[in-house]
Fold each of these.
Amino acid sequence: MLKRNDEKINGYLFVIVLPILLFAMSYYGFESSYTRLKTSETTPDFLFSSVYAYRVIPNYLSVQMTDLMYNLINGPLSFFKDFLTKNGTPFYHGLFLMNSVFFIGCSLILDAVFKLKSTGLLLNINARRIIHLLSVFFIVITQYAPTNCDTIALFCYLAGVFLTLKYLDTRKNVFFFILIGLIAISTLVRETACLNIAFFAAVFFNIDELKKGNYQVIWKIIPLVVAFLVPYLGLRAVLVKDETTFVEGFYINRNFSSPFNLAGLIFAIIVIYFIYRLCTDEENRSVFGKYFFFSIPYLIMITLVGLFWEVRLFLPLILTGIITAYHQFKKTSEI
């Protein structure tokens, strides 16, 4: 009884308390050129223009959380007003609170994923906690570039990874149908929803089965692609304004000329290579390799319109590599 309670307390400390403290340190303990968001009293106008306008769910939540924090600071938390005002604005505090909720969601999902068909080190609970903490650290260190959409998008992505693995293990269609709905909803958050399709394809795609004329995996992937394209194109058809664009800008020249962006690229390459080396089983390396192949469109996009210095763009690939390295994959010859 005491041992069980001790495990629950330790799990609570590792999965919730420690991650949220690290997250708070990244938002309030460190400064960067991106923390000018601290001076924004209201939701910034740029979130409703350019490509950001298509991220409707984060924008809506940002407005609501900013209003909530304003009312709290001038109401129930008025005794704390001086401290809160000194360390941010209603928008920034609301951004932290909103992202904290989804960050804890990410931590809980990672904990659940690492318990699914674990192999190697993760069979030991202490080793599993270290790997979980490493994953959390990767999320935290990318928060020097805080946004209102990336943490929510990461939560949706990890939820999609969990659903894919549950479908792999149980073959219950309910997980597949939920995944379809999740991709449609998460496309309203950020375009990284397409990576859930890449992961699903990496897990189930088998070239040998295609040579035999078994195209079941193709028919499984099509609904996922449709679930992504319908809201993606629908938003761009509905939100037609002069200030909205498909991309914020093209930064490919800056990515390969700026020392900061080159440092971000080298960081991502080294980390991903290190994680690939952790994949000791042939099946795990195969899944990881296929995942990168199906993620090529995403990698091309962040090369053209993203900034390598914002390594949060590589975060889904890094976390997927860690998950892939320690998951026991079944043979996927049949769906």
Note: The chain has a mean pLDDT of 86.
Amino acid sequence: MASWSTYLQAIFYIALLFFVIPIRIKGPDQAESQFQEYLKRFNKTYDDPSVYQNRLHAFKQSLQTIETLNSKKRNGSALYGLTKFSDLLPEEFFQTYLQSNLSQKTHSNEPKRHHHKRATVPNKVDWREKNAVTRIYNQGSCGACWAYSVIETVESMNAIKTNKSEELSVQEIIDCAGNNKGCNGGDICTLLSWIKATNFTIQRHADYGGKCGRGSAGVHVRDFMCEGLVGSEDVMLRLLADNGPLAVAINAQTWQNYIGGVIEYHCDGDPSKLNHAVQIVGYDLTASIPHYIVRNTWGVDFGDGGFLYIAVDKNMCGIANEVSALRVL
């Protein structure tokens, strides 16, 4: 016959099954479950436990940021959600894909600022429909948005002139342009000044062999403007309608989790916050929120197939602080 101590031991171990074990095998919280789904969706793996926890921490912070950004919106406004950048802390995203103190790099070409009355322009312009916009590029971790935005605009202007769309060599500009820092940053106005002053030949992508100044065939910039048009975005609309796409400096800090819609909130226009450069390829004044059509360089898996939309007439994201238009020979 079993002793009382045996019965007590049995009861104790059964109690462990009901109370202790369930606590110890507690599953991941909801955010971690979302993170695991996120890793599958974006085909990411973090085998190192420490790295995994760091990325999970960044992901949780992105969830909070997304909730905040989506708290103020209306029909058609920007929508924020999970992107390939959502497992980065904001400072990591900035250091990898943006530039600091971009406004300080324009000292030799301070944009002029002036005001104009609104001129009559077409309600909608989209240079993609006229075969004047090449494919979406991906700059990766190379901070050469300044080179991409200018070369994209040279490509567009050359296509408008010749009725033939060709890719030019961004790498040539990264390697060769003076007064800029390659993948460590640069400025669109400074670049255009250098291209014009040196009468630089911008080679086709397929022709560039890695040596500066060796190209005999290519495209030359005829002339350009670089101006501050805050309060005069009608001039930007007129340039887009009459001349072609524009290269602009911009503040992209809050774009980390952008997935679509028109950005009209949460995007500071202060010139001291400029940290990126993009191309504007058109606008739509007939939309519920009139907007620019902006081409980015973070791949086709960013935003709307590589594009995003920014509200007109608000200097949203600083889009009118530094505006460049050009013509080619």
Note: Residues 17 and 23 are 10 Å apart (CA to CA).
Amino acid sequence: MISFDNMIAGRLPYGGIEPARFDGELSDRFRDAFNAVEARAAQGSSGFRELPRDRALAKRTLKLAETLKGRFDDLVVIGIGGSALGTIALRDALLHPGWNELDRRDRAGRPRLHLMDNPDPDTVSSLLGRLDPGRTLFNVVSKSGGTAETMALFLVVWDRLTGSLGPGRACDHVVVTTDARRGALREVAESRRLRSLPIPESVGGRFSVLSPVGMLPAALTGIDTGAVLAGADGCLRRCGSAELQENPAGVLATLLHAADVDGGAPIQVFMPYADRLRGFAYWVQQLWAESLAKAVGTDGEPAMTGPTPLPAFGAADQHSILQLLMEGPRDKA
């Protein structure tokens, strides 16, 4: 359910969307957009929508997780952008808030979870210095297989592992998640005989959390991946209607699109009040920005368009940015 009373004209001291538009122009606008998206999906451009029902890939991921179960005290995911933000969102939402501070018994033998994305030498060396190489698993994640930051971090980690364990044992401490056939990381995985899992070709990196990108770390740390995938499938079904009032995702998209193109509010604020949704807000920021910012329009003409997502966190940001949001320029939704 989405509550949008505060975006309706009459509830706001200024502007707002006229209720009659929902049964008329906005419904027609959404129906056209929905049908265009469905047509693209039919051509195979939205592979992420198939992930909740890809039982073979889910089974393969769980099988590897079971093989690695109990062997490691720490799991380090090396990735950036879509190769990390979805996993961070899952970690924050579904693991114990103090997961890495729990002892091994309270974690039921599952590993601590670390994300290594920004190649800052101080942060990286500090983390690696705290870990026992012989009890640490590194999951290197890149859809393209050539992400510069990820590959640089992998080289640092590989040097540390081989220096401590030797090349043979080092291979047992790395899992690669990348494109099934292409990219430098795929070549590295095959040449060094590293364990690996595929990201389907039709799945873009920022949409890959329901692939092994997110499901392997989730399974290793004890998150019920079956429930996650079932929930995602349920959301797909709920959002499968071209009728605006029956589609919660459609309502959200339509409201924010109208705020941007009709209401002069191109800044869209995502402000969860639950700490568990902090990672989700940053993930939404990436999904929004990378999906909707376009230099060229669908007609091939220059566009330079896209709403600006702004993550914030209540109640802390009520005491930092809220005054700007409430009393500043009327350019935010």
Note: The beta strands are 74-78, 112-116, 136-142, 174-179, 195-199, 267-270, 294-296, 302-305, 308-311.
Amino acid sequence: MPLFGKSQKNPAEVVKALKEAVTALERGDKKAEKAQEEVSKQLTNVKSILFGAADTEQQTEILIAQLSQELYNSNLLLLLINNLSRIEFEGKKDVAQIFNNILRRHIGARSPTVEYICTKPEILFTLISGYEHHDIALNCGTMLRECARYEALAKIVLYSDDFYKFFNYVEVSTFDIASDAFSTFKELLTRHKLLSAEFLEANYDKVFSHYQQLLNSENYVTRRQSLKLLGELLLDRHNFTVMTRYISNPDNLKLMMNMLKEKSRNIQFEAFHVFKVFVANPNKPKPILDILLRNQEKLIDFLTKFHEDRSEDEQFNDEKAYLIKQIKELKPSAE
């Protein structure tokens, strides 16, 4: 029985036809419309190989292995991403689906596509710059978040200059794109705990000078999301060194105290979760202690009345009571 059934295309032929069609689309000649149709057709053929049009599971596995190898050898993944804007709407979604499916493929403990992308990091950087093009931003985001699940790929992104582009992408005026970029940004900083901790420690000044811009953003959603994420990062035990450094800076404390008084109750609430880390620190540096002592009475009064309507939130009320007690018991440090 032939490996490729009557209706089943040979992976090598499909990849070759798809590459030719995308290349024609890239040239943008008179046949571009026909090339677009051909791209859509061949993407459907790739999906039929991936999602098991063969008669048995074993045959499907063999076909997918061949397809993957052809995709690597032809450099087609990068070509598709580079030309994503030229592919029609459904085709864009097909590219993301194919990319993510091939990425998840593993042989035992190995992930061949992850290994391949490690040798072609421009795939990751091209996906990142996709956020600059509104017609493909969300497709690129879907593929990037799938990449971020793999530590080796997340590491390439974090330690690249391109990572800092996210501080701009999360503030773009198109809400869907800004939200998607923030989801990817958060995934990169929280998915692999040890990797993130090492990265933040090694690049503390650069990351947090950029992060400060987000906390001072004119955009309410950006400020709220970045404040919430900051709280999560500081309270993660893997980030103990980063947290200690952050809560030793009096400017950071002043910022949080100002954010406690924001008009938005949501921002007040997220600021509370960062502020509590400063107060709970048993080894407060003198500049931090001085600020808290200078504002001791005001803080006790303020916190007593702070979000009194959250009576059902037991954890919040316990934390608030603990902070009030800590601030009441503050004493100047012995010089």
Note: The radius of gyration is 26 Å.
